[in-house]
Design a protein that fits this description.
Blueprint lengths: L2 E6 L14 E2 L2 E2 H10 L6 E6 L6 H9 L3 E4 L5 H11 L4 E6 L7 H12 L5 E5 L8 E4 H10 L9 H4 L7 E5 L16 H13 L8 H10 L17 H19 L3
Parallel strand pairs: 1-4, 1-6, 4-5, 7-9
Antiparallel strand pairs: 2-3, 6-8, 7-8
Helix pairs in contact: 3-5
């Protein structure tokens, strides 16, 4: 059983240019993500999934410096990039997250990995963590099926396709009450998000890596911090792409029902 940890990362952001290279208490944002991934157990490879576009070369250099693998795939088709990386490295599953999430929860990431090791589910997700703190897992055969059948390339947001119990075996891990804070925003898309993260990293004392539980406890006691990035809009699937996803899901369901 080979389970890889795939970090999706590019440097094309217009809202906060070069956000993954911003310094946060001595490390770049993407370096914090890599460091947290390295702390996980039962991962065969850590792979930074980027593109061959020249603007993304700094990410490839960071992967080399961090002694992890990298894969340069499709610039726009994120789902195909993940599939091609998982195929190249002969992964049975991949656990993944995007590169702008330097505080993803290691405890629940390990829970996802442990579930993937059971080899029972096609898609494993977490419900209730702050935005930017949850990873996911996908069986390679499931992503292979989707990539073979889909006829669109805008797949930056793609979890919806796999969150279909009629098509795939889905496992949802619910977080404990002390960690259930879906309204907390701990991702990086805007300058306000960066200000918020700097406040967290400056306020808490730690050696190595912070536990998300400590971060949540601190925010619980300092609710005023939530005003910093409260009104930042989280991107959703564009309606035209959602329509194409729905059409794909319908085709896959019809094929499954017909034994195709």
């Amino acid at each position: 059983m080979k389970i890889g940890f795939l970090i999706t990362a590019r440097l094309k952001s217009s809202r906060l240019p070069l956000k993954l290279l911003k310094d946060l208490r001595g490390k770049k944002i993407i370096e914090w993500v890599i460091a947290r991934a390295k702390s996980l157990k039962n991962i065969s490879e850590i792979i930074l999934c980027t593109s061959p576009h020249p603007q993304d070369y700094p990410l490839i250099e960071i992967a080399r410096d961090e002694s992890i693998y990298y894969f340069a795939g499709s610039e726009e088709d994120v789902l195909d990039r993940l599939y091609q990386a998982s195929r190249l490295f002969s992964l049975d599953y991949f656990v993944g997250i995007t590169g702008e999430n330097p505080l993803f929860c290691r405890y629940y990431a390990q829970r996802v990995i442990d579930e993937a090791k059971k080899d029972e589910y096609d898609y494993i997700k977490i419900k209730g963590l702050p935005l930017g703190c949850a990873v996911y897992a996908v069986r390679r055969s499931a992503i292979e099926l989707v990539c073979r059948e889909k006829d669109f390339h805008n797949t930056e947001i793609w979890g919806y396709i796999f969150d279909q119990p009629e098509l795939f075996k889905v496992k949802e891990i619910e977080v404990e009450d002390t960690m259930n804070r879906p309204h907390y925003r701990l991702t990086l898309d805007y300058k306000e998000d960066f200000v918020f993260l700097k406040e967290i990293f400056s306020a808490l004392s730690y050696e190595g890596l912070m536990d998300l539980s400590e971060v949540i406890t601190y925010i619980d006691k300092n609710q005023n911090l939530l005003e910093i990035n409260r009104y930042m809009e989280q991107h959703d699937i564009p309606q035209d792409v959602k329509d194409k996803m729905d059409a794909l899901i319908l085709r896959l369901k019809e094929k499954k029902q017909g034994g195709g």
